[in-house]
Design brief:
Order of helices and strands: HEHEHEHHEHEHHEHHEHEHEHE
CATH class of the largest domain: Alpha Beta
Oligomer: single chain
CATH topology of the largest domain: Rossmann fold
Number of strands: 10
Number of helices: 13
Distance between the termini: 29 Å
Number of domains: 2
Radius of gyration: 18 Å
Shape: globular
Length: 279
């Protein structure tokens, strides 16, 4: 491989995918922590949510998205969906040489490190909580720790509808989180990429003494380390006018674009709809 090929590879984009808009919290952290990197984002808005679907279906969807991202010449892939990280990550790693990371392990490692009383809560979709992936990984790191999972299926539609600071969201959050308060957790993993968008609500209910772990941030830090280790980090910021951030969805591009612009300060000019079933 000559110098120009190496340079081109380092300037290739990072692929990020999610079931919908939640993975934008991961994309946002990558933009903040690794500003030189270009991003190709895919949100599977036609088939959201993933959390209530079977393992087989999640693997099928994730394979289609992997094939799409490969056509975009990405140099690394972030599975910015806890459910897909739980069910499909191992399968995807077998099918490509492109480095792939999920959002589960980075958050789990931080939670295992931060807990003082050995009681860690995890909130997520039914799929993520049912998979026990956070529990299993944390137990490998610290066998003595208790991990209490709580599925919060209504959080995703509330976030997707933009009800981030709404009395309905407050009420549902209180119902979901009350049992975690009762068991006395001191650390809580926001185990779905949608959940950082209602972090202030969760903080208000859980109180200041509970450490909130945002896997989106931890994943961006891990991606930075991965790219550096493999010599794939982009040494220079993309030039003005280049397609620095590209966004694709499987449905409802205008709705996605409005939501994305509300949480990203980087100005999304457009989101393109593709037929993911073709991949």
């Amino acid at each position: 491989m000559n110098i120009e090929e190496i340079k081109d590879l380092r300037q290739a984009p990072v692929g990020v995918f999610d079931s919908g808009v939640g993975g934008l919290t991961v994309a946002r952290e990558i933009m903040r922590q690794i500003p030189n990197e270009r991003i190709v984002y895919f949100g599977d808005t036609a088939r959201v949510p993933y959390g209530s679907k079977s393992r087989e279906t999640i693997i099928k969807y994730s394979r289609q998205i992997l094939r799409f991202l490969q056509t975009q010449q990405v140099k690394a892939i972030v599975v910015a969906c806890n459910t897909a990280s739980a069910y499909a990550l191992d399968e995807l790693e077998k099918e490509t040489d492109i480095p792939i990371i999920g959002v589960v392990k980075p958050g789990a490692r931080v939670a295992a490190r931060e807990t003082k009383n050995g009681k860690i809560g995890v909130i997520g979709t039914e799929g993520t909580i049912g998979s026990q992936i956070y529990t299993n990984y944390i137990k490998k790191l610290r066998p003595e720790v208790s991990v209490i999972g709580k599925a919060c299926p209504l959080f995703v539609p509330l976030v997707e509808e933009g009800l981030l600071k709404d009395p309905v969201t407050d009420e549902i959050a209180m119902r979901y989180l009350s049992e975690l308060i009762d068991v006395g957790i001191d650390t809580l993993i926001l185990g779905c990429t949608h959940y950082p968008l209602i972090r202030s609500t969760v903080r208000k209910i859980m109180g200041e003494e509970v450490t909130l772990v945002n896997p989106a941030y931890e994943t961006a830090i891990e991606l930075k380390q991965l790219l550096t280790q493999k010599g794939l980090d982009n040494p220079e910021a993309p030039h003005l006018g280049t397609d620095r951030y590209r966004f694709y969805v499987s449905d409802a591009a205008e709705k996605f674009q409005r939501f994305a612009n509300s949480i990203l300060k980087y100005g999304i000019l457009s989101a393109k709809t593709i037929n993911i079933e073709e991949y």
